Amino acid sequence: MFRPLHPKHVYICFLISFAFFIDPSSQHVDDVKKQQMREKVREMFYHAYDNYMTYAFPHDELKPITKSFTDSLSELGNLKLEHLPTDYNGSAVTLVESLSSLAIFGNKTEFEKGVLWLSENLKFDVDVRVNLFECNIRLLGGLISAHLLAIDPTNRLIQGSYDNQLLRLAEDLGKRFLPAFETPTGIPYAWINFKKGVMENETTETSTSGCGSLILEMGALSRLTGDPRFESAALRALRQLWRMRSSLDLLGTTLDVVTGEWLEYSSGIGAGVDSFYEYLMKAYILFGKEDYWRMFRSAYLASQKYFRYGPWYHEANMWSGKPTYWQLTSLQAFWPGLQVLVGDVAAANSSHREFFHAWEKFGVIPERYLLDHQMIHPTERYYPLRPELAESTFYLYQATKDPWYLDVGEAMVKSLNRYTKVAGGFASVRDVTTMQLEDHQHSFFLAETCKYLYLLFDDSFVAKRNYIFTTEGHPLQVMSSWHDKLPESYFSGNWTFSKSGAWESGASAMSMKVCPSIAPNSRLHEQHRESVCHVPDQKIDHKCWSNRDCGVDATTCRQRSCSEVGFCGLWNPL
């Protein structure tokens, strides 16, 4: 069985290429193709973006066929214009989502215009009910990513003054999320009202991805603002979700946030669960917390054992591991990209080729294909301009530099222009068997689909930089200052050394018969002597999963406990 690389080597696939002889003439051909395709993708992006700004801005998303708009992020998406609240003009979701793409495309003027408009006009104090997960990945993630890009001096995207306006908007939005987490389990409600919080009789059902894919954005918000509540809430929910896993290390798809009971036992790597896996791995990269890697490794190995069938991944019962549904879904196409980050490039390539074969067969990928019946699901024939295959193609090309992936990207660009481009933008496909279109251009087409295709042909923006992309394609720079570090003073009274000064794992002052020493200015390399009641934490770095990982304090003889962010300490009051 494949064993995932340790995260210390997670970037190895981006630092080396497979060794093979490259003919200089073929390299030139590839360079010319990449330049041509880059410009075609640029044209696609601006055709979608300009039409949104003309016909839909500041509302959420564009209807490209009728050249109108929809506020699809909220429950208002199906209301007519005259029925919208008078104080609600949309959240400009597509603009927020487009900022990081504008930065990658090098459009400083439009980026700055977008930042200024949002800082002066975007308000969240409105009476609308929104989906927490979608708001988190689209609005909060978009604002945080754009803020980080705006303050990065190497980008120089803002020519005028920038006073953290996007961060203030993100903080306001994050605070409006917090009431959703006030549940007995700590797992948040799926829906929240911007002004009123959790509504009366709100549904208590949520999905694994919906409540387990919040840590990147909310964790980043805490690191940027210094307010720990956002990361603490998201981490508490994630930990509780992981505690609910089966003995097979599998999770279900939907659950009740109040009772903590699973509602749907069938699970897989697709809709309802997908970004849960993604965020465990990426949270480790972004924050350096070992727990994320430990959870991901267990979950990933379980997925390989119970879901994988050759290059395909079916669904299985979380309790028994027995297959439930044999189907390919378009959302599963993100998986090869995640496998590249893990270092499982061979498996990523195998699955990716099957997804691309489906693309070639239908012209685009249907939302759901029944593998056991070799047919498209009768009610899920659509393709809403999803980015997942483009995303995995980008990652695999970065890992291998195999020009075949450029051909894949070129085929995707041609299909999108052939089947989905209309005068008012790019339309979703209602039925892949007839290519009948639907009047909807999702914001993720600009945030992800165009972005990953562009980066496939021109990776200069990410070259020699460490970025991770959120599940909505928003880049977050990996910074050492965000990686977990304990304050210097934390170490003074919590170490047990032997007489030689070497750490002995699992040893205690009592077993070594040493006397107390509570000198606060002791140096770490000197011999420390602790009270006889002292029992050290299980890990040298004091990280923990539960109270069982924590020992007894050296100076107070009190039992230490595990905090919500995973460190042992004297957190409980006397």
UniProtKB/TrEMBL annotation:
The active site is at residues 134, 274, 367, 388. One of its GO terms (cellular component) is endoplasmic reticulum quality control compartment. It holds the Pfam family Glyco_hydro_47. It comes from the Eukaryota. Keywords: Calcium, Endoplasmic reticulum, Glycoprotein, Glycosidase, Hydrolase, Membrane, Metal-binding, Signal, Signal-anchor, Transmembrane, Transmembrane helix. InterPro entries: 6hp_glycosidase-like_sf (IPR012341), EDEM1/2/3 (IPR044674), Glyco_hydro_47 (IPR001382), Seven-hairpin_glycosidases (IPR036026). It is a single-pass type II membrane protein. Gene3D superfamilies: 1.50.10.10. Ca(2+) binds at residue 471. It is an enzyme of class 3 (hydrolase). GO terms for molecular function: calcium ion binding; mannosyl-oligosaccharide 1,2-alpha-mannosidase activity. It is found in: Endoplasmic reticulum membrane. Residues 1-27 form the signal peptide. The keyword Transmembrane applies. One of its GO terms (biological process) is endoplasmic reticulum mannose trimming. Its cofactor is Ca(2+). Its EC number is 3.2.1.-. Belongs to the glycosyl hydrolase 47 family. This is alpha-1,2-Mannosidase. It comes from Brassica carinata (Ethiopian mustard).
